[in-house]
Design goal:
Blueprint: E1 2-8, H1 14-28, E2 35-39, H2 43-53, E3 56-60, H3 62-65, H4 75-81, H5 86-95, E4 100-107, E5 113-119
Parallel strand pairs: 1-2, 2-3
Antiparallel strand pairs: 1-5, 4-5
């Protein structure tokens, strides 16, 4: 399963979200994600994109984001959400404990949205078990 995790400003536009997603998917070598994940307070911004893609939108609460270790270490992200990258943390949390990040955050040209890609061996998100042997 391919999970696109997002971080964004409250004023992020549909074009900014789409640009961040396109950049992350291109880097991953994929055409579309299987699911989209975003902070719970940003799902309304991502809902149109998820609907256009025909994929589920997974809300990630701040408690799940807090402390998630990410390759990117943004000071602003750490202050706001307690993790180095909201996009990377959303992707990893939604993809489950066996997930691995395959694309670190990509930022849209206007710096309104970020997107990161995680891959999980579990075909469902969020993964219902701590370890999933199901094929991706």
């Amino acid at each position: 399963m391919i999970v696109a995790g997002f971080g964004c400003r409250a004023g992020a536009t549909p074009a900014a979200l789409a640009a961040a997603l396109a950049a992350a998917l291109a880097a991953a070598g994929h055409d579309r994600p299987d699911v989209v994940a975003a902070p719970a307070d940003r799902v309304a911004l991502l809902a149109p994109l998820a609907a256009r893609l025909g994929v589920a939108l997974i809300p990630i609460d701040d408690d799940a984001l807090r402390g998630t270790v990410t390759p990117t270490r943004s000071a602003a992200s750490r202050r706001a959400r307690g993790t180095g990258s909201v996009a990377e943390a959303c992707a990893l949390v939604a993809a489950g404990s066996e997930a691995r990040l395959i694309v670190t955050r990509r930022i849209d040209p206007h710096r309104l949205a970020t997107c990161a890609i995680a891959r999980s061996p579990c075909p469902r998100s969020p993964c219902p078990r701590s370890s999933c042997e199901s094929p991706a």
